[in-house]
Fold this sequence. Notes:
The protein is an all-alpha fold. The chain has helices at residues 9-23, 33-40, 44-47, 54-77, 83-100, 103-112, 116-130, 135-148, 156-176, 185-206. Helix 5 crosses helix 10 and helix 6 (103-112) crosses helix 7. The longest helix has 24 residues, at 54-77. The chain is elongated.
Amino acid sequence: MITNCEYQPKERAIYQAVLELFEEGADINNLTVAKITGRAGIGKGTAYEYFSGKEEMIAKAFFYNGEMFCRQLYEGVCKEQTLGDKVNYVLLAMERQMTKTNCVFRLIHMMADNSPVSGWIRELLKEKKEVGVVPAEAVIRRVLDDELDGREMPSEDKMKYLMLSIYSKIFCYGMLLNDDKYQQEDQRVVIRGLVNRGICREVEEIFGLS
């Protein structure tokens, strides 16, 4: 289950400001606390009551964005009936999200460097895992639990492999969305179908449904 984390209004204002600035193409190196708080409509002094600096603001804004996206995914997936429909819903939602903002890939790129922001991101991810609250995992787990439908769960190793495999397929699909070749809907339909069938086939094989 995805937790219903609460955020203070001023925290949300900061997160929304960061995301808006990134959507407009802001460079992380040129982004300042003053620019963020100015967009958020709050004073710098007030912002420092919640955050240590711009690095923490940016890192937490990306996590906030991911959490909100996964919460919407979770609610939508619950309304779909078949495994294929659930996977298709997730892939289509990713397309809409990627069209709106490249926050996901900026997050990935930041995690790969050694900047202060990447340090905050890795620490936040570690904290989420320690308390068992990783929204993306909750969405995938919901899909798999529904598909099991009361049958005996496969071994822990098989479940870990399946989770990792689904993650990788969805991640690779997201990467393809950045390719100019897949900006047209007809091109995305083909690759989306391949990814969907690949995930469904692997779930069916491991769950013994085929």
